[in-house]
Amino acid sequence: MATRRGPAPNPNAVRRNTTHTLGEKKLTGQAGAGRELPKALGIETSAAKRFWKTWSRAPQTEDWMETDWAELELTTRLVDLFYQGDTKLAGEIRQRVGKWGATTEDRARLRMSFDTQVQAEAEKALEPISEADIDTELYKLLSEG
Known about the structure:
Elements: E1 25-27, H1 46-56, H2 66-83, H3 90-100, H4 104-109, E2 112-114, H5 116-125, H6 131-144
Parallel strand pairs: 1-2
C-alpha cells in the first residue's frame, strides 16, 4: 500500500490559468513585407542570405521591434559563420530561432498559433489548378459563345 507524502489535495482546488489564454499570440500566417539584408553585415554565403530572406518575411515578424531585428541580424551573421565551417554555432543558432517559433514545437511552447481563416484563404489562393479544372473552364468558355 502506497502512502501519500504531504497533505492531501484540496477537493475544491481550482486551476487559476484555465480561464484565459495568457500570452497567446495569433499570427495571420501571411508572409510579411520583410526587410532588405543590411550590406554592413558582410554576409557571404547564399545559405545565410536565404536564412535572412526566410526569417525577415516570416509571419512571426508582424510585430517585431528594432531589438528583434537586431537579433535577426546577429543570428544571420552566426548562420553565415556556420556555413563557412564553424559548426560549433549550430546549438546557439537553434536556441535563437527557437525563441522566434521556428518549429511547430517551438510555437506550441510559445503559445503561438496561426489564424486558421487567414491561413486557409492564403492556401486556397495558392492551390494548383488541375488539368480537369482547366478543361472544364475552357469548355464553359467555348460553349457560351
